[in-house]
Amino acid sequence: MAARSSRLLGAHMTTTTLRVGGMTCGACTSSVESGLKDEDGVGTVSVSLIMERAVVAHDAKVISAEQIRDNIEDRGFEADILSSDAPEALVFDAVEDAGKEDDEGTHLLDDALSITTVRVGGMTCGACTSAVEGAFKNTPGVKSFSISLLSERAVIEHDTALLSAEQIAEMIEDTGFDAEVLETKASDIVPSTARRRRGSQHRILTTTIAIEGMTCGACTSAVESGFKDVPGVVQFNISLLAERAVVMHDPLQLTADQIVETIEDRGFDAKIISSAEEGVQASSEQATVHLKLYGISSPESAEDLRVLLQNLNGITSVTINFATMRAAVTHITAQIGLRAVVEAVEKAGYNALVADTDDNNAQLESLAKTKEIQDWKRCFRVSLTFAVPVFLISMFFPMFLPFLDIGSIKLPIIPGLWLGDVLCLLLTTPVQFGIGRRFYISAFRSIRHGSPTMDVLVVLGTSAAFFFSCAAMIVSIFTAQHTRPATTFDTSTMLITFIVLGRYLENNAKGQTSKALSRLMSLAPSTASIYADPIAAAKAAEEWTKNEKQPTSEKQATAAGLEERTVPTELIEVGDIVILKPGDKIPADGIVIRGDSYVDESMVTGEAMPILKKPGGNLLAGTVNSAGRLDFKVTRAGRDTQLSQIVRLVQEAQTSRAPIQRMADIVAGYFVPIIITLGLVTFVGWMILSHILPHPPAIFLKEASGGRLMVCVKLCIAVIVFACPCALGLATPTAVMVGTGVGAEQGILVKGGAALETATRITHIVLDKTGTLTMGKMSVSGADVRGKWNANAEQTKLWWTLIGLAEMSSEHPIARAILAAAKSHLGLATDEVIEGNSGSFKAIIGNGVEALVQPASNNQRYQLIIGNTTYLRKRDIDMPQADDEDDLSLPELGDIEAPSSSKAPQNAGVTTIHVAIDGAYTGSLALSDTLKPSARAAIAAIHRLGIATSLVTGDQMATAQHVAALVGISPDNVHAGILPSGKQEIIEELQSQGEIVAMVGDGINDSPALATANVGISLASGTDVAVEAADIVLMKPNQLMDIPASLHLSRTIFRRIKYNLLLSSVYNLLGLPVAMGFLLPWGITLPPLAAGAAMACSSVTVVVSSLLLKLWKRPGWMLEEGGEIPAQKRSTGIWSRIGGIKDIVSGKRRRTAEGARGAYVPLEDYEHV
């Protein structure tokens, strides 16, 4: 066996799924499993009795799928092969011909150390680089490893005898990223036998599962416990409200089908939504698309389609899972696009749908709880139809209308049998075992795995009432009683009716909690119009722009010759030219190439006013075109659009758990056993007390109560059905889902419950200056040219040419401002290029740049150093004494006046940059920036929240002090001339003093500080790296009042979470003693019917409490601080609140006039600045 295992370790394992018919019990599944595990070449075996499936991981070279099928049939069962992975080329330890090269032509470099450079695609953040680097930790043969996120390069020094370049690429791909070997510096090439050393490194899959039937934290705990210590599970996340589980796993140890079986064994319905190799996103060169296929009737047809697609130019790999009807196609985007792949499938006679679309539609339905609402509504109607007659016969007629009491009629055929009991039994049975069947199944499965859920309590309570009544009837028959026995059929039917009603109301309310996410997911249109020939369309747009004076009718006639076609939105590709007509929703991100029109971006960015878009303007997917016609070129489509990123952030926020929720889930896991114990204690305790007390409570002595046994049974049932862990489990996720949805509507994206909870404890905020407090659009406000460079106009022109050439290679805002000024002085347009060459460019972060430039006007080369005073002096440049203060035109600090109105633009001080040519100082430039209009008001609002602020910048101290004085930051909290690493150190220093620090920034140089801070807040206008490193993303970068608003919203959400937890805890702590009979001596009791009704209402109460977050408004003082007082006062009276609650629960949200046409409109509480 050991030999077999070692052999399997290096072999590719094929996963085969078979349908196994004829299994009836666990002994059957054990027979199938034991028969396969004894076979040579078989790895893991999983057999599901309920699904009638067997999933076998095996070495296809040793045992084929057909042999596995024969083995199962030999054991007396029917077997059909549903799917089997196409085996890859296998490399065995034995090399038949020592002098022969490998079949694939793979080579291994000699034993000398080699340096291999690999391009790594798909990395988006520091977590990605850590994942790649972690894969090489403790790997034999690796001497050193370095990786860069921005350049997408990894440089590895390794011993090629132990680790080849190809193996390095494979290991990176196994972590979920694309890898391509660019260069390996080594000596002699020899035949490779190292691929056989490919260890047990396997790909990691991320599988998303839709789970139905979860109602509370005990349910999620039950599912999660099923994966505890399971081999192959890397990470497991589950969301109650989203009804999704995301599992990272090794498919050779745990398949996606096994995950589904494990969940189903716990009593819940599970369905695979997607299963793909773990990674953040595909590279720009290669992309993997998942398709949902329709019309394939057999595994052979699936294989034919796979071969057809594999042979297409540009497709690198194709896998088709016949069982799930899903295909994963990896293609080179430059050679073949997604649309061509789908068209190839359709030409083959099948239909294909991009799986993301199918998954989104399924999630939209799941979020809206459409299926659950309809299902529980139907169950309630059926249950109520039977429960009302039972209630009338058992309770209402005997108490209030005795003349209609048909239940008191004694049947003469069987002594001791009464008509009312027979009718109640017949009416109760369909409810107990028809409507209640789902409760029995779920309860049985959860008990079998030792993780009882709320359904166990429902089954125990209703079963106790039903079977006790049946027992009372049997006793009455055998003893031939002359009085009607005490039965509780009404308790059973009414309890189930109340519980079903509660589930219906709960799902109805849950559907409202995710409205914001549902609206965001629905913003993109289903189809779009594009030009069949995008190149011809782009040329026509250029002609349109050039011939502006030509009559519009003639230009339209020229464009009319271009063929248009309509395609699904998910098939739009980068480079397509999309046609937008008035009123159309924009399907992708892009740049306008023809036409002008106003676009309503309120649904994505929160901007209240439509924005004019002209050629060159940026468009966002999900926004709405107004009256004009636009043609735009797609720059980002599908998952890469800003709308998709917003949806992804909101999804992550709403499915992640807050730390406070973990304790609630732990309590929910122990809740059911404790309640069952309390119920038994109640029954036994009162049975004993009712017999030993000389004067027991009066209820035990009343004949109408049914005697001591009946009273004790009812008390036990009341305890069991009253207690509800659902409210405890829903307290946090519902508040997080509603709160983050409200934030998303206002352009505030919070990445999960953990960030939300930490944001409530922030004591200090550190803000970047450029691009955060200021507009980030620097402009040269003055120049001081010295020496020979100021001798004549030609020399000055040459000076501007040299600094323009030096700054052409930099993307820094200051560099762009200097380049723009140089072009202006040289008389060039913004899109023209300064003639000349630039080389040896080097940017020193936080200091300046160096470059060797050669203008086209002469053949001389000049060495330029452009930067601040400190940097030039470090380079031994002799600076004039007058420039010690780094200031050409700064006003004295004492002359600075704070702005009286937040709406008035303020000069944010002057930044001085010095220029040295060939080692000599030649002059300086003064650059100024504009303060964002809401900066001062935002800082004042932050201070009012009790949070201190600091300003950190790489700029000079005088400028930083000037900006701090304008916005109201204390001079003691200003840090100037700070490098990116220095920002990180400042945050760490504040944290060491016990501060909970938030960092607000927007650039790549801010990303280390954003990641170090307790909470990182990024502006959406910033870089992707900064957005990825942040915990909170603000979609309106110029609206700094969103910073205090996000903190106020976080505090409001967290207060609601604590209130919900308190509400659910108090409900159980106060209600349980009453249900247990603590107040019986005073004649106060809780009947089982009332207990069931209270239990049904408890979870609904918590969900409605969370829905109240939809009424959140920015406080009036925050609006006043910003000078943004609404024209009309908002009603905050009790009747307004009640009306708002009614609208929320019913799903009828009040909309503004802009929302009347059905567009998604955020809650706007202030005027746009």
TrEMBL record:
Signal peptide: none annotated. It comes from Peltaster fructicola. Its EC number is 7.2.2.8. PANTHER family: ATP7, ISOFORM B, P-TYPE CU(+) TRANSPORTER. This is P-type Cu(+) transporter. It is an enzyme of class 7 (translocase). Residues 14-80, 114-180, 205-271, 287-353 form the HMA domain. One of its GO terms (cellular component) is membrane. One of its GO terms (biological process) is copper ion homeostasis.
